[in-house]
Amino acid sequence: MPAVLPVGRLKVVGPILNLAFAHGSRLPDILSLVRKLPQFSQFALVILLAWVVSGWMLPSDEMQTSGHTYNGGHSDMGLPELAGLVAVPLFGELPALTQVAPPKVTTPVRSRLTLRLLGTFVAGDASAAIISMTAGGSQRSYMIGDTIQPGVKLKQVEAAAIVVERDGVLERVLLEQGEKLGLASAPVTAQAVVAPRLQRQMNRQYVQQQLQNFPDLMSQARALPYMNNGKLDGFTLSEIAPGSLYQQAGIQNGDVIRKVNGQPITDAGQAMKMYESLKSASVIDIELMRAGQIQHVHYNIR
Q1: Which of 112, 182, 234, 277 is surrounded by the fewest CB atoms within 10 Å?
Q2: Is the Cβ–Cβ distance between 58 and 6 less than 8 Å?
Q3: What class has domain 109-174?
């Protein structure tokens, strides 16, 4: 395939060829040119050098074509968008926040149970209720969390009602009219026999230490309201822990604490006031009922 000179180079070499053809018709002139060959050789060398330099300076058609292709490819590559950079999790992805649903509030429905609520004692976790299963039947004390009957558990004690859970459903049992605890103290029955007064001494430091922690004191025994003729007549102590303050004071399981320093216990508020007064007392008098007998115990705190 014949070599093709680029257009840029033809513009420089063309005038030289025209000059040679113009002198071809005159032989003497050619001979004259031969005699001047050294001068023309220098001139041709300059032309040749100019032709080489023009090849360096002027881009060829292939270079223009490839350059156009590169520029086209470069124009397709743009800088990444700012939104894309912001969306990249440089420090890892944060865990999705889970919305905690508010607790579902269930309103207790009116209970259709046949049990009778005879009394309530509201004292926080130590609250209790006096319940009779049938009209005129025996009564029993229940604390929060106790099972009243199969499938029925005591969940809450109010001043004039209780809330029980039966088969996963909350039900409210209302207190019978006039049966609320703390209305009045019951008189001592005629069958009760008064026993001789007892004297005991206790260490002041030990008593004060035990009375400082009320929850721990309540955990040393179980106290349930004692009902007499439908009214509160003290508290029955049971499950007395060995070595507890109750045992050191001579209290036995089944004893009913009726009065403290001559004041009958008629409600939870009064019981708490008595508890506070015992912390600094030097003398404590307790009236209790044991096996149907009334006993008075006098404590000297030294």
Answers
A1: 112
A2: yes
A3: mainly beta
pLDDT of 95 strictly over 90 = no
Tell me the domain boundaries of the chain: 7-50, 109-174, 193-301
Q: Which amino acid is at 62?
A: E
107-151 pLDDT per residue, tens:
889 898 988 887 777 777 777 887 888 766 677 778 889 999 999
